[in-house]
Amino acid sequence: MSHVRYDCTDGYATLTLDRPDVYNAFNEEMILELNEALRRARDDDDAYAVVLTGAGEGFCSGADVTDMPDWSEQSKEEYGAYLWSVQNVVRQLRNMGKPTIAAVNGPAIGAGCDFALACDVRYVGEDAVLREGFVGVGLVPGDGGAWLLPRLIGESKAREYLLTGKDITPEDALEFGLAADVTADPLAAAQEFAERVHGLPATAVRYTKRLVDPQQDFETYCERAIEYQWECVTDPEHEEATQAFSEGRDPDYDREFTP
């Protein structure tokens, strides 16, 4: 791939958006590659978690308007197909069976902000910024931002950011619980988190992620929990984890890499 780097080491995959000269703004080719990289991470048995970050000083500054077709000369169907592919990055991050972690090392603007919001956990750099800046250029948050942000920080505060396009600073992100931490090295923090996740029973981690669903009612949660818990109870890693706990030692899972 030309614009997305894929690396799987130490039990997790790191996807790096690689157009640093434009703060990793995406063109059509990059979106296709990112979708493919996410599918690869989904199917990679050696990846127990997925880290998304950007090369250089940016996370993702949204669409590269200098490297896009003139949409006014295209059909609605053509534009819809393109926007669907951008939305599908958010869709894949949300639906990934493995934990997803955003290392927001610089500006995350527009759809780039939505990519970060779609991840399960965010580590934000001290000089980074998240911005739903669509209204400023006469657009709506077409990639999921107006759905994601209210669920993460509450409807009233989300409306403030969505309707004005003002910056979400690192301090704001931490205060609202949007960021797990603000750090000088968000990639190192994200990778450390990924390694910690890899050191836990994988079935339990993946089903725990599925249970975190604000849209479900409590009875649905309980029904799903019975199914998921049974899968965990019959999982060999659960047996090893409980045996190790009773013996006062670290668990030894049957994997090539164990933190």
Automatic annotation (TrEMBL):
SUPFAM superfamilies: ClpP/crotonase (SSF52096). PROSITE patterns: ENOYL_COA_HYDRATASE. Belongs to the enoyl-CoA hydratase/isomerase family. It comes from the Archaea. GO terms for molecular function: catalytic activity. Residues 240-259 are annotated as: Disordered. This is Oxidoreductase.
